[in-house]
Amino acid sequence: MKTKNWGKVYLIMLLVWIPFFGSAKKNNVTIYPMPRGEKISTEYAVSVAGRDVPVYIAKVAPLDKRKRWDAMDKRQCGEGYYDIASFAYFDLNEGKAKITVTVPEQIDSVKVLPSSYGIKPDIKGNKLSFTVSSPQNLTIEVNGEWIRSLHLFVNGPEQNIPDPNDPNVVFYGPGIHEITHVEVGDNKTVYVAGGAVVRLTIGADEPFHVSKFGLKGYSKAFWLKGNNITFRGRGILDASACTVHSRHMIGVRGENIRLEGVILRDAPLWTVPVDCSKNVVIDNIKLLGRRANSDGIDICSSENVLIKNCFIRTLDDLIVLKTPRGMKDMKHIRVEKCVLWNQMAHSLSIGAEITQPIDDVLFTDCDIIHDIGREWALRVYHTDKALVTNVRFENIRIEECNRLMSVWIGKDVWTTDPEPGRIDGVTFRNITAFGKTPNVEVVGFDEMHKAKNILFENIRVNGRSLIKDDVSVNKYSDNVMVK
User: What burial class does residue 292 get, using C-beta atoms within 10 Å of its C-beta: 0-12 exposed, 13-18 middle, 19+ buried?
Assistant: First the structure.
């Protein structure tokens, strides 16, 4: 988009916001101030219910496919390969609210994604407007510009904001904060208020070790380790100052842990790894990443995990399940109502590292608005020895993809077990997708290590039903059904 002289306009808008140090509540929406030191977007202005909303920027993977690949494969040189997207957030406390987006140029076309929300904006000159009546994570693409798009995060009302004077609360109020490492133990709450930006840094004497597999060798900026821990708020965690592969933004290990509401920007590694945990809820967090191995949410060897209402746009895997070497089995995992943008790898997947059994996994009611990577949108990717059972991908809407569905057993760079694994029971049901070709595969390894009992039911690709001939099946696959 052409920015023209919008920098001056936004500077004036920013100066208007600066005096406010708390959230601004009026009518049925809550708008949070942008703190000094944050760069404001010069490409979009947003208002809700007639009031201005600050618009932030985030580095995202570039349009050029080779640069995206180099950002992953060459890692350090990829630091310079990025483009700039924009995002804004507010709380809708009740009822409906009209949103207006203004850009520097005439609007000829616009998409508000996910398409399943059915939002058809009104367009007048360089403005578009529409009404929202519920919490949702939206992406707005104007005049075909989809890389430098606007992400709009509409939250529900905040309830029971913690007391900043409570000794069990780590409280970050509006403004800029810097931290290197915070350990959060039993019965603690971390709260990042709307209008706060917590910048993650690396201490000069901070130990750092990289191990090829597992999570123990990597530092965590926030390390939630224990029982009954909450990490919540409306503010932003920013890891832009951290070097690639230096740290996880939020690490989780324990029981009865909840993450909710925050925005995580520019992760240098896996953004939120959850390992050896039980009873974890991750609700309405928003992730924007673009660097090597900047996975969104990695669930490792955990039990009873629910991920819901999240937005993830990042370079590597978005939501992935693993049982790495030295950890335990995994069961009862549910992912629902998420909006996903896959820029390089997998959108929703199990694997590669599966050294212990995985059972009872459901991915459901999710929207994949872009899947432009070199891997698969929906996949069970098995490179080790364990048994994978009872996996369901259901009610998923995919607006763009290169490769659609894969169930695969084999050897790869991630393999640590000499013996291959087995897959028994994977269902793909009620899925719509658009792409150049269906690209569906089921691949077993040998007679003793098969992919079996694989069901494709009510799958529509490019407007037509998936048929058996669309599915590539090797001789080590049993009972593959297309209905």
Answer: buried
The per-residue pLDDT for range 121-173, each reduced to its tens digit, is 999 999 999 999 999 999 999 999 999 999 999 999 999 999 999 999 999 99
Q: Where residue 130 sits, what CATH number does that domain have?
A: 2.60.350.10
CB 313 within 8 A of CB 344: no
Domain match, 389 and 427 both = yes
Tokens 């992406």 correspond to what residue?
139
Confidence at residue 329, expressed as pLDDT on a 0 to 100 scale: 96
Residue 255 phi/psi, 5° resolution? -130, 145
How many angstroms separate the CA atoms of 261 and 287, rounded?
A: 11
Are 68 and 61 in contact, with CB atoms under 8 Å apart? Answer: yes
The string of pLDDT tens digits covering residues 327-363 is 999 999 999 999 999 988 999 999 999 999 999 999 9
Let me know if 8 is exposed, middle or buried by CB neighbors in 10 A (0-12, 13-18, 19+): exposed
Q: Taking a C-beta distance cutoff of 8 angstroms, is the pair 367, 339 a contact?
A: yes
Full DSSP string of 38-72: PPBPSS-EEEETTEEE--EEEEE--S-HHHHHHHH
Task: Give the integer Cα–Cα distance in Å for 313 and 369.
Answer: 10
The verdict on 35 and 109 lying in the same domain is yes
- Asked whether 344 and 316 are in contact (CB, 8 A), the reply is yes
Interval 213-229 mean pLDDT: 77
Number of separate domains in the chain: 2
Collapsing DSSP to helix, strand or coil, 284 comes out as coil
| The pLDDT of residue 371 | 93
Amino acid in the structure at residue 244: V
324 and 367 co-located in one domain:
yes
* Residue-number span of the structural domain to which 60 is assigned: 6-155
Do 204 and 323 lie in a common domain? Answer: yes
Same domain (yes/no): 85, 197: no
Strands 247-260 and 56-60, how do they pair? unpaired
**Average confidence (pLDDT) over 301-327:** 96
Tell me whether residue 285 is in a domain: yes
The rounded distance, in Å, linking the Cα atoms of 327 and 333 is 16
Evaluate the omega torsion of the peptide bond into residue 433 and state whether it is cis, within 30 degrees of 0. no
Whether the full predicted model's pTM is greater than 0.85, yes or no, is yes
